[in-house]
Inverse folding.
């Protein structure tokens, strides 16, 4: 299927008079380095600071970004983030995001957070999964651009969805909105190891995952709460680690309302995504991680068993781009009122 004409083109307003100043906290992490790579080449912004945790006081170069960005990551400095940037990206562990995000909002800076700190609206669920965020500040928007562009435009803090929820919600929300889902939803998800961040653990150690595939977090993964919040129904979500550096593939098994045909599914998906630049519908051609690695695309395909009312969808994305840094830049473009493809295509 051809890449659709962008809804963003209609949305795009005039570019801002001067480049917007942006900064990245967590720039030495996996998602943060992708942010620096994207923002350094972005035509509408100037990258004014990239910061590490501050654990080391020496500035650290980012060797993989040489000639793309030749600066050095400096230790975390909240005052400098606030004074040197109009928009700050947080690619931090959620407890750090909870604290730094709130501090930046108080100083009038717009924030785009990649962590889970600001995603959960229910106080009880947030207390369970993200206890560092006692309250949600005003102006927080759950920022899945394909679904919430209007609210994102005026957000003070865009809380980017998790990598697994992004794929699951993009696949399921159009069907849910069209009233086609009935009964259980099973999300079988497989992720490359960079989804766990750069700090090694026994689970993510090369010798543990090379040549193996393992389920984890069954009935205890915090992304379940996020998916259920957005879909407003319960799901069975089982993530797996696969021996890839990056990429997510989700196979979603759903029961359909009686009488649902392939044409209903296709119409719901096309209506949702015909004018969006980063969701590519592949229909019966099921997508693969290789098709989206190193891109901001989410590809979604499906096969239906009309007689038994069963649908299987497959959704793929790059966890570090559409699942993290790319989606964050897409959100920034929407917040700035420019074409959401800028710097991403
Ligand atoms: N990886 C993914 O696929 C993915 C996808 C979606 C969302 N996310 C979310 O994005 C965030 C970053 O993920 P990641 O995978 O890039 O993590 P990561 O590779 O572990 O990097 C973490 C970054 O945060 C910095 N940092 C650590 N503790 C800090 C603290 N207390 N204060 C300030 N900075 C601190 C680190 O600096 P040092 O280098 O100095 O340690 C590093 O720059 C997480 O919240 C994660 O859940 C990740």
């Amino acid at each position: 299927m051809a890449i659709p004409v962008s809804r963003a083109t209609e949305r795009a307003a005039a570019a801002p008079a001067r480049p917007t100043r942006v900064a990245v906290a967590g720039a030495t992490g996996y998602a943060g380095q992708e942010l620096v790579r994207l923002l350094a080449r972005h035509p509408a912004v100037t990258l004014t600071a990239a910061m590490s945790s501050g654990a080391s006081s020496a500035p650290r170069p980012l060797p993989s970004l040489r000639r793309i960005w030749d600066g050095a990551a400096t230790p975390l400095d909240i005052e400098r983030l606030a004074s040197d940037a109009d928009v700050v990206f947080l690619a931090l562990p959620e407890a750090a995001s909870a604290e730094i995000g709130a501090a930046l909002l108080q100083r009038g800076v717009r924030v785009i957070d990649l962590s889970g700190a600001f995603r959960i609206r229910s106080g009880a669920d947030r207390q369970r999964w993200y206890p560092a965020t006692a309250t949600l500040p005003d102006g927080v928007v759950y920022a899945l651009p394909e679904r919430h562009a209007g609210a994102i435009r005026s957000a003070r803090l865009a809380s980017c969805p998790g990598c697994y929820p992004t794929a699951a919600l993009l696949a399921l929300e159009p069907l849910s909105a069209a009233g086609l889902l009935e009964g259980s939803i099973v999300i079988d998800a497989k992720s490359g190891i960079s989804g766990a961040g750069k700090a090694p653990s026994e689970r993510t150690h090369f010798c543990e995952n090379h040549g193996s595939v393992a389920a984890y977090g069954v009935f205890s993964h915090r992304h379940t709460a996020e998916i259920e919040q957005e879909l407003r129904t319960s799901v069975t979500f089982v993530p797996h680690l696969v021996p890839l550096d990056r990429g997510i593939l989700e196979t979603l098994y759903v029961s359909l309302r009686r009488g649902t045909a392939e044409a209903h599914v296709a119409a719901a998906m096309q209506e949702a995504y015909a004018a969006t630049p980063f969701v590519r519908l592949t229909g019966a051609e099921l997508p693969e991680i290789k098709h989206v690695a190193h891109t901001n695309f989410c590809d979604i395909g499906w096969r239906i068993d009309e007689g038994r009312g069963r649908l299987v969808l497959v959704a793929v994305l790059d966890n570090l781009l559409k699942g993290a840094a790319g989606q964050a830049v897409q959100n920034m473009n929407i917040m700035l009122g420019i074409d959401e493809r800028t710097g991403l295509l």
